[in-house]
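Milestone 3.1: sequence recovery, worked example.
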């Protein structure tokens, strides 16, 4: 049975999002920083450790590897990774929706 963790770490969430199309490591770092307006900056060690874990779990796979460019690899999210991402997105949407209780003044003291 493949491993499906929820909740995802913020790094895993944004890496999966950045891999909705083929992307290499540095491209993922740049895209995550752009998506989050600079709030999330992935270090190389964090990214490459996460990529290894995501591959082991079957959530991403190597899309292509350029053997002439120092093993530059492009990764892409798998169908299982998309399922994991959608489950996490639904969980986060539920959190936001339930948080509206605070705005509506429905909390009991």
């Amino acid at each position: 049975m493949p491993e499906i963790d929820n909740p995802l770490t913020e790094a895993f969430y944004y890496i999966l999002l950045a891999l909705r199309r083929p992307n290499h490591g540095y491209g993922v770092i740049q895209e995550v920083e752009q998506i989050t307006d600079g709030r999330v900056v992935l270090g190389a060690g964090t990214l490459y450790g996460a990529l290894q874990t995501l591959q082991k779990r079957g959530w991403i796979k190597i899309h292509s590897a350029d053997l002439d460019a120092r093993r530059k690899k492009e990764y892409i999210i798998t169908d299982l990774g998309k399922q994991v991402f959608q489950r996490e997105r639904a969980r986060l949407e539920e959190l936001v929706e339930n948080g509206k209780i605070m705005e509506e003044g429905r909390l009991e003291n």
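The longest strand covers residues 60-66. The mean pLDDT is 89.
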